[in-house]
Input
Amino acid sequence: MALLQIGSPLTYCNVFSKIRPSSKQKHRNLSRFRCSAADKTAPDQPAVVIRRSANYPPSSWDHNFLLSLENQYAKEGRVRERAKLLKEDVRKMLVETEASIEQLELIDALQRLGISYHFEREIGDILTEIHNVEGKGFDKGGKTEDLHATALKFRLLRQHGLSISQDVFNIFMNEKKTGEFETSLNDDSKGLLSLYEASYLTTKSDTKLKEARSYATERLREILEKRSNTDYDDTQSYMTKMVIHALEMPYHWRVKRLEAHWYMDVYGKRHDMNPLLLEFAKLDFNILQAVHQQDLKHLSSWWNDIGLAKRLDFTRDRITENFLWGLALVDEPGFGYRRRMLTKIFSFMTTIDDIYDIYGTMEELEIFTAAVEKWDVNLMEELPEYMRFCFLVLFNTINEIGFDVVRDKRINVIPYLKDAWTGFCKCFLREAKWYKNGDKPSLDEYMQNTMVLAPIVLQQLYCACYSDKNSDTDLDTTSDSYRSVIESSMTVLRLANDLATSSEEMERGDTPKSIQCYMYETGATEEEAREHMRGMISDAWDELNYEKMASESTLPRDFVQVAMNYARVSQCAYQYGDGRGYPEKTKMVDRVRSLLVNHVPLD
Output
């Protein structure tokens, strides 16, 4: 922290220069360290505040390039007409398929290809009927199910919020060896893969199914090892790709839009693939991509016009990556407003995070936090120029969201929105104090502080899109279900981030993250701490799965689904490292390109 002479003005400078660095200079490999004043400052000279730098690279996406994006296929009238015809053909196919296992496999294919949102009512009716006749035999002939059929039914029912017991897997257990499966299943790659995927729909009470996950994982790895030394046919090739993909990350944890893009190519190589499904999926992907491109153009223009990244050039300029986060939460074509709102929120989160984490002095951070808490533009004059501009843009944008809700739903949600941002800033202020004082919080202290961050995205979305039109009693943010959903989603975000970025951040100087907190507290090795964090992520998913099925919950299931999507995009963004800080190193640029730049060839 800078040591300032009383009455002397502040001078802000970069570590290596007393002038603001040029765009070419600012990304040099600068070290990150505490702010401190020069040791020897003449009485008549201003004190110098030295700023830290995280050396974030500039945006990978030029504004003019984003404005030029266009999916030519989606513009053609014949393409849209063909898509409408195929949609009705698929609907008819879905309704007229008689055998339950065939219906479930069709639903699974529709989900994986990203087109199930067209048939939500039909899929809901089919799964509800299957759920209602549970116990009377799986298929209409009353035959015993195989492992694949049982696991697929279990996964799809739970995905759609329908309760089904883990005991459906008891018929596959070895009666002589408690907790083990029949040895005849050891080479059933299709059944084991379905069991593995189903095992990620657990709640905290599903202990047997968690054991099944370990069993399925081990058997699938053995099957892959065997196949690596032998030739196999197209069917085995498809299954091998699916197994490798699933073991890297289960389907339930993946961003659905990215999964659809990946699966189209794999599904096209199946010997029994349905050409109508594949054609419709490709057409629909291109049509939906055109909608998303328009959203991105709007947001890129907004971001360019407000100039926040230009004025605060130490922050991450990530409007495109932030849009991918918003898109991952709500991708349906009719939810453009939600995507735009979420992207703006993510962009402010990134900017303010960088202010607290790397640039602001403690005095500045405390004043900024007070300004947000009081939500008072009159306090702007107390802020340095860079904070003043950030606060004004935040203030105007969040009030605009609040105005939209008042106009459309006659509810004043601005107090809720303000409280969410206050908690966000207070969380980062506390972390800044930990860093300044050299504190080592316990894991519980660290996670409790993190939970203050939790409402920042989901509470604002809840207020704007899920609140009741005539009463603000629906905005009960103290219910157990609401807190469980919000905090579980935030736990996944925080820990996925820490698993990917903590080593680098600690190396350059930062507050201890969850991994270090656990190591300090327990004496665990880093790998043991990382394994503990993975277990906490799994537990958080158990809570989300439970809330999706909880019949007594007052939360809209769509909102729970969005919270799950928030967890999914968190794991996606940090799967290969810091996807927000360094997109080009972590496949985030490739993922943006696949969803928003490159069309799917129709061939």
About this structure: The chain is about 60% helix and 0% strand. The two ends are 61 Å apart (CA to CA). The CA atoms of residues 138 and 197 lie 19 Å apart.
